[in-house]
Amino acid sequence: MAKRERNKRAARKARQQERARVEAAQAAAAAGQPEKSRSIFKGKDKSSKPAAKTKAVAKADRKGIARVTGYFADVRSEMRQVTWPSGPELRNYSVAVIAMLIVFGVLIWAVDTGFVAALVQYTGLRG
Question: Does residue 63 share a domain with residue 3?
């Protein structure tokens, strides 16, 4: 299992490095500079690494902003689909909620008073 996880991590890292290299090449092409080739003996070209990092950070920022704007666009879309109650319906719903609060408040008060009376009767304590 550990070997499989290491292989997945290595593959992800290789894809990330390839993406960074492609982004650096695109940035260089956009700036009009030819892409610097990698040396066979020394591995990666170190001069393109900072540019790729800043490009990746900028791209991540854009993704974050896109997520936030997408979220608010979705919220706006959902709010348009809501069926809002009319004024009289809202009044009726509000009265029903307040009435139920009063009923349950009285019910809880009665049960609490009953428990207190039972405990006073059982223990013989007067408070």
Answer: yes
Asked if 45 contacts 37 with a C-beta cutoff of 8 angstroms, the reply is yes
Pair 115, 127 in one domain: yes
Place of tokens 């170190």: 46
Q: Any idea what DSSP says for residue 39?
A: P
72 and 11 assigned to the same domain:
yes
Residues 91 and 73 in one domain: no
Only one residue has tokens 């979705």, namely 74
Q: What is the pTM of this model?
A: 0.39
Domain of residue 65: give its range. 1-82
What percent of the chain lies above the pLDDT cut of 70? 77
Helix, strand, coil abundance in the chain, percent, nearest 5: 80, 0, 20
Please answer whether residues 53 and 81 qualify as being in contact, where contact means their C-beta atoms are separated by less than 8 angstroms. Answer: no
Which structure tokens are listed for 22?
């492609």
Same domain, 77 and 89: no
Q: How far apart are the first and last CA of the chain?
A: 67
